[in-house]
Design goal:
alpha/beta, Rossmann fold, 2 domains, Flavoprotein-like_sf, FMN binding
Length: 230
């Protein structure tokens, strides 16, 4: 099970509807939320560094301010990660970004309003991850949160949970495994017998389909190997 910490770089997350929504969506056992603040002495910084090492995946979550992070969060990053590359504290850990912004996602491309892609604008973070020996994950972006419909918000909540806890793979099989794990967790917590039977039926159905998919993949692999000898 992946253990994740979400470091929130919003200057006032309690006043942000988007940040509150994300926090509610991330009420998961293996996910911890941490609000970044600059009011730390040396010992507090040391404790934060030691605490971060306990996690498999570190997520920076923030609103985009002038194509970067809010000022106080930049100071927090500089303070906490200073000289970290020298002792390999974070080598091998996964590092991701959850970024929300007020423009359309389609604006981040050549020839459009913002001219550059989000990946291009976030290159400094990719360099940051590389410097510390971390694995840089695909960016999780949220565009115009307050314009999302109810169904889009539900989809966002599931996608966000997967980004925080699912194995770093975008294949269909890994998504099925993640869904099955979540359903198993719900089944353990469920008290109603009827709903429990429904959960178990869905889990069994997913497992059966996954076995069939694995068998199909093995057959395709065998066919490819046989073809290579012809």
């Amino acid at each position: 099970m992946i253990k994740t910490i979400v470091i929130v770089g919003h200057p006032s997350p309690a006043d942000s509807g988007c940040q509150q929504f994300l926090r509610e969506s991330a009420q998961l056992e293996q996910v911890e939320y941490y609000i970044a603040t600059n009011q730390m002495d040396y010992q507090q910084v040391k404790r934060v560094q030691e605490h971060l090492v306990e996690f498999d995946r570190i997520i920076f979550q923030f609103p985009m301010y002038w194509y970067s992070v809010p000022g106080h969060f930049k100071m927090w990053i500089d303070t906490v990660f200073e000289n970290s590359e020298r002792n390999n504290l974070f080598s091998g850990k996964e590092f991701g970004l959850v970024i929300n912004y007020g423009v359309k996602s389609s604006d981040f491309q050549a020839g459009r309003k913002e001219r550059y892609t989000l990946s291009e604008l976030c290159r400094p973070f990719e360099s940051f991850a590389n410097k510390l020996g971390m694995i840089f994950l695909p960016i999780f972006s949220i565009s115009q949160f307050y314009y999302l419909t109810s169904s889009e918000m539900k989809r966002l909540a599931v996608d966000y949970q997967q980004y925080l806890t699912k194995k770093n793979s975008n294949d269909f099989l890994s998504k099925e495994v993640w869904i099955q794990q979540r359903l198993n967790l719900f089944a353990v917590q469920e008290k109603d017998d009827k709903r429990l039977r429904i959960f178990k039926h869905i889990v069994d159905h997913i497992a059966s389909n996954r076995d069939q998919l694995s068998s199909l993949e093995e057959s395709l692999t065998w066919i490819k190997e046989e073809s290579s000898y012809e």
